[in-house]
């Protein structure tokens, strides 16, 4: 199954038809992952693995159905996330994000400005001019001896900690299965990545996009979340029904909607996996825009939106260098995960 993307382009004549035709040819496949999870033979596993790797080579994005995470589990996480963001601002502020090495805690609206730039001064200027209109809560592995998660009091958010820790583990387990499929699709041994991702150096991000008058987003560079790629191996994205995620067609540069599909997860390649694969797998730019609805004859408002992202990373001490079967000449020098991730976070937030 494929989802045919659509796009609205403000242009005319041949240029408009050209962009529309290009967008119509951009597809994000829906892949039934149960065929991998329940496969009775290596041949069956390899068929699904090849589908996944083919999509990651072309668009960098897939929808995954029958992924094994129950809908009730996802719904509960969304409810607990919504309850968290409804807490008073001063309570959330006590849990504020403080350090890129930790990457844990509450990030208030306007603190982050995602971008492809690595220049701190440029990012600061962008953040001052056009901050991202969202807030988030960042959660890491809870047994870390150096960096601790920042949890709300149980009385303020009943069941929040337990729900999120269970979901963190569930997402990690799916990440392991997905990386096994990628290994097979790259003609590596199925367990090639297992020991390189087992320390669970991931980031569970709860995202809230409050309603806002559309006029406030119409300025130069304004967005719910600006154009960017992700940092790690894979991102598992759980969307609500509002929509707003757009993915850039690598061939045309046109952004096309990744329309929410019930019971699926959007999964995309991050920068480190692209680098690991010597750009055989594609880390694709994407952004979050703002669907709008009329609230009067003269004004529109963007509705509230929720999403949950699980940013999967290799172990922090894993050296990322060109994988076997991904070219004879490496495009990038080796780098360890921690150096890369902390560097990107430092530029984004500080």
Provide a brief overview of the structure:
The protein is of the alpha+beta class. The chain contains 9 helices and 18 strands.
Task: Tell me about this structure.
31% of the residues lie in helices and 21% in strands. The chain has 350 residues and is of the alpha+beta class. The protein has a single domain (28-349), classed as Jelly Rolls, CATH 2.60.120. The strands form 4 sheets. A 9-stranded mixed β-sheet has the order 1-2-3-12-9-16-6-5-4. The chain is built from 9 helices and 18 strands. The N and C termini lie far apart (42 Å). The model is unreliable at 2-20, 112-118 and 122-130 (pLDDT under 50). It has helices spanning 13-24, 34-37, 42-58, 71-85, 89-93, 120-129, 160-185, 271-276, 337-349; strands at residues 2-4, 27-32, 61-65, 105-107, 135-139, 203-209, 212-213, 225-228, 234-239, 245-248, 255-257, 265-269, 286-288, 293-296, 299-302, 305-311, 319-320, 335-336. Keywords: Iron, Metal-binding, Oxidoreductase.
Average pLDDT rating: 85
Q: Structural class from helices and strands?
A: alpha+beta
Adjacency order of strands in the biggest sheet: 1-2-3-12-9-16-6-5-4
Q: What would CATH call the architecture?
A: Sandwich
Radius of gyration: 20 Å
Quick one: how many beta strands? 18
- In the CATH scheme, the class would be Mainly Beta
Fold-level CATH name = Jelly Rolls
The CATH homologous superfamily name equals B-lactam Antibiotic, Isopenicillin N Synthase, Chain
First-last Cα distance: 42 Å
Helix-strand pattern, N to C?
EHEHHEHHEHEHEEEEEEEHEEEEEEH
Number of helices: 9
Helix content: 25-40%
Low-pLDDT residue spans: 2-20, 112-118, 122-130
Q: Could you tell me the strand content as a percent range? A: 15-25%
Largest sheet features = 9 strands, mixed
Overall geometric form: globular
Question: How many distinct folded domains?
Answer: 1
Organism: Lentinula guzmanii
InterPro entries: DIOX_N, IPNS-like_FE2OG_OXY, IPNS-like_sf, Iron_ascorbate_oxido_reductase, Oxoglu/Fe-dep_dioxygenase_dom
Domain Fe2OG dioxygenase: 200-314
Protein name: Fe2OG dioxygenase domain-containing protein
């Amino acid at each position: 199954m494929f989802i045919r993307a659509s796009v609205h382009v403000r242009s005319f004549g041949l240029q408009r038809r050209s962009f529309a035709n290009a967008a119509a040819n951009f597809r994000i496949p829906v892949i039934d992952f149960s065929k991998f999870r329940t496969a009775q033979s290596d041949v069956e596993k390899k068929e699904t693995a090849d589908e996944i790797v083919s999509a990651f080579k072309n668009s960098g994005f897939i929808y995954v159905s029958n992924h094994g995470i129950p809908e009730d589990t996802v719904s509960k996480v969304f409810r607990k996330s919504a309850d968290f963001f409804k807490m008073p601002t001063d309570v959330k502020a006590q849990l504020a994000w403080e350090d890129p090495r930790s990457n844990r805690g509450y990030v208030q609206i306007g603190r982050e400005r995602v971008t492809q730039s690595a220049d701190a001064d440029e990012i600061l200027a962008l953040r001052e001019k056009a901050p991202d209109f969202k807030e988030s809560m960042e959660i890491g592995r809870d047994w870390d001896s150096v960096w601790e998660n920042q949890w709300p009091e149980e009385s303020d958010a009943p069941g929040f900690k337990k729900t999120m820790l269970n979901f963190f583990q569930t997402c990690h387990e799916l990440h392991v299965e997905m990386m096994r499929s990628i290994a097979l699709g790259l003609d590596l041994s199925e367990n090639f990545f297992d020991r390189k991702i087992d320390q669970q150096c991931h980031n569970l991000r709860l995202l809230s996009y409050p309603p806002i008058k559309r006029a406030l987003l119409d300025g130069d560079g304004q967005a719910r979340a600006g154009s960017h790629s992700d940092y790690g191996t894979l991102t598992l994205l759980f969307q609500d029904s509002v929509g707003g995620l757009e993915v850039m067609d690598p061939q045309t540069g046109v952004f096309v909607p990744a329309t929410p599909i019930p019971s699926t997860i959007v999964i995309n390649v991050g920068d480190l996996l692209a680098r690991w694969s010597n750009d055989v797998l594609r880390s694709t730019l994407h952004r979050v825009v703002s669907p709008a609805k009329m609230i009067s004859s003269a004004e529109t408002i963007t509705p509230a939106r929720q999403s949950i992202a699980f940013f999967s990373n290799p172990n922090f001490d894993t050296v990322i260098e060109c994988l076997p079967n991904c070219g004879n000449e490496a495009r990038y020098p080796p780098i360890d995960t921690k150096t890369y991730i902390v560097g990107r976070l430092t530029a984004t937030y500080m």
